[in-house]
């Protein structure tokens, strides 16, 4: 399952496939326009995807979904917050 084009998690997942030796670019069978929709499909058993850990913290804690660790792949989270209107 994949997020919509332009999603940062989709871009990150594709970049991992392009830079990892021996891994082909994934085939997109299901595409969703939001992380919440993708998480609901994971809970329903439709596949796997890459989502922000904060988005699934509660689901992981309740053991509604599982987490997969891939050796040699580390995702570094960087964020930037701004306030507008001042």
TrEMBL record:
InterPro entries: LysR_subst-bd. It comes from the Bacteria. Residues 2-69 form the LysR substrate-binding domain. This is LysR substrate-binding domain-containing protein. It comes from Bacillus safensis.
């Amino acid at each position: 399952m994949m997020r919509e084009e332009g999603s940062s998690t989709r871009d990150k997942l594709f970049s991992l496939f392009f830079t990892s030796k021996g891994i082909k670019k994934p085939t997109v069978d299901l595409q969703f326009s939001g992380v919440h929709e993708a998480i609901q499909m994971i809970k329903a058993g439709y596949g796997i995807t890459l989502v922000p850990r904060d988005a699934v913290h509660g689901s992981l804690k309740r053991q509604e979904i599982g987490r997969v660790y891939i050796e040699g792949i580390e995702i570094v989270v960087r964020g930037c917050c701004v306030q507008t209107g001042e």
